Amino acid sequence: MEHIRNFCIIAHIDHGKSTLADRLLQITKTVSERDERAQVLDDMDIERERGITIKSHAIQMDFNYEGKKYVLNLIDTPGHVDFSYEVSRSIAACEGALLLVDATQGIQAQTISNLYLAIEHNLEIIPIINKIDMDGAMIEEVKDQIVDLIGCGRDTILEASGKTGLGIEAIFDAIIKRIPSPKGDPEAPLQALIFDSVFNSYRGVVAYYRIFQGTMKKGERVMFVNTKNTYEANEVGIMRLLYEPRQEVKAGDVGYVITGIKEAKEIKVGDTITHKENPCIDIVEGFKDVKPMVFAGIYPIDNDDYEDLRDSLEKLQLNDASLVFEPESSIALGFGFRCGFLGLLHLEIVQERLEREFDQNVIITVPNVSFDCFTTSGKKIVVHNPTDLPDPGTIDHVEEPYIRAQIISQPDYIGAIMKLCMDKRGILKNQIYLTTTRVELVWEMPLAEIVFDFYDKLKSISRGYASFDYELIDYRDGDLIKLDIKLNGENVDAFSAIIHREKAYEFGSKLCGKLKDLLPKQQFVIAIQAAIGAKIIARETISAMRKDVTAKCYGGDISRKRKLLEKQKKGKKRMRQIGTVEVPQEAFLAVLKLNED
């Protein structure tokens, strides 16, 4: 066990984690020359296309150091704020972390957030300045920032370049000398933490775990503590680029187990695996339960695909434990699911994965956050969906979630960032100059305001320099109302939103305008209205498709033409009363892009 090292790589998005992982795998010859490619651990098409890591990836390497063979278990983690849950799970399975900082950008908000997570778990931190071969590298300045942040000695900070392989030997040296070997007794009762799982169509659910105590052998009966279900370990082994079966996996190591489970809900990430005959007394203290920040409805385009969509979401949840969902129904869209996500990028990725991996075309409703509604009788109702909001007459007050947002940027963009945050009802709490060229702003603002487009706007006004991280702090009273969209007097519940009263008119008129462009013309006039209760605050009208019913009248008396026009008028009136307005899928997607105009 003293020759095992478990570590992860943490950093802000685009600071070179995957490239550094590529170099580590190349030097240890874990990846053959034939399989070598950029971002070798990012195995999803969507990760490679976007150049971002969505899933944490575990892999084992062998490294010879001073005549001894060491086993290194590496977990590469995502850097985007929406996937910080993946990072927390990886950290729970490690003893050390490589803290990667881009030499051209310095410390960013997500770096700090991930670092605090690692410190909470008492991980040994190895600070590394990456991309030192770049023209704009500010090595000494970034060293100062790291020393200020974690209080380490300047000589403990490593300099490297993941791209060229410069300084990689020193990183291996630090991993072996500075990261402690795992503790644990291979003879004790089995105690293993599940930190990830995937679904394989042929073999069922594959669980990835880190063993803290005991040994897992092939063919043994194992028990999942959370569900109390027992299974036979058909195959156990370690993870290289492909699975490598072994007869046993011992304490301190990271591995996988295949038990033939076909039902996704039987395995829970964060659960403990133990033996049926000799169970462990304590479960492994894993990580906190995930708290979704953004909620949206996901509906199949064809209602017959409802069960297929449920299966697809269950399989996806297995691989993405931060996705939560429950069934719901909508008058406009039929049966579907109310899903909780960690952010808007997470929502986008889930939609794309459903499409690519499970061939599910879905409609997604307007994303919103959850609110606490207090009625006049003192009852508290948690509202995930605007349609759940009770009658306005029975509401005493509504509380919305507030976040503490940490923005790090260059001083040139302070004015624009302040204007953006104040437009989003933000309250400035602190402003600190980290260096002469970097300033940290701490704001408190409603989560609902940052759900849509805050991150994109922040990036564009700061030319990509500002970094952003947030955490939920509490719920506060707000002047919130439910905005309904009516088509010919009928509420379309999929477009309903809970919004601050000041923003209601602007949002309502924008949405009506967008729907006017997207809804197809009918034989009758369509009225699109935005309403707060019975009060209409915005309206757009789609005129009827014109058809010249008098075209067949050649000459003759004018009363004949008038008679035909009157008949048409009555027909259109009746059609308007009984006609339904079909809402195309683009209209639901357009709501997400409302603020991009």
Keywords:
Alpha-Beta Plaits; 6-stranded mixed beta sheet; 27% helix; alpha+beta; 597 residues; Elongation Factor Tu (Ef-tu), domain 3
User: Based on CA inertia axes, which overall geometry fits?
Assistant: globular
Main-sheet strand order equals 11-10-16-7-8-15-12-13
Residues in helix, %: 25-40%
CATH fold naming of the largest domain: Rossmann fold
Q: What would CATH call the class of the largest domain? A: Alpha Beta
From the N-terminal CA to the C-terminal CA, the straight-line distance is 58 Å
**Tally of distinct domains:** 5
Beta strands, count: 31
The mean pLDDT is: 79
**Contiguous uncertain segments of 5+ residues:** none
The CATH architecture of the largest domain: 3-Layer(aba) Sandwich
Main sheet, how many strands, which sense, barrel? 8 strands, antiparallel
Please outline the helices and strands:
Layout: E1 4-10, H1 17-27, H2 45-50, E2 57-65, E3 68-76, H3 84-92, E4 96-102, H4 109-120, E5 124-130, H5 139-150, E6 158-159, H6 168-178, E7 191-200, E8 204-213, E9 215-217, E10 221-224, E11 229-232, E12 235-239, E13 243-246, E14 248-250, E15 254-258, E16 272-275, E17 294-300, H7 306-319, E18 324-330, E19 334-341, H8 344-358, E20 362-364, E21 371-375, E22 380-383, E23 395-409, H9 414-423, E24 427-435, E25 438-446, H10 447-450, H11 454-461, E26 467-478, E27 480-487, E28 490-491, E29 497-500, H12 501-518, E30 526-532, E31 535-542, H13 558-578, H14 585-592
Parallel strand pairs: 1-3, 1-4, 4-5, 5-6
Antiparallel strand pairs: 2-3, 7-8, 7-16, 8-15, 9-14, 10-11, 10-16, 12-13, 12-15, 17-19, 17-20, 18-19, 21-22, 21-23, 23-25, 23-26, 24-25, 27-28, 27-29, 27-30, 30-31
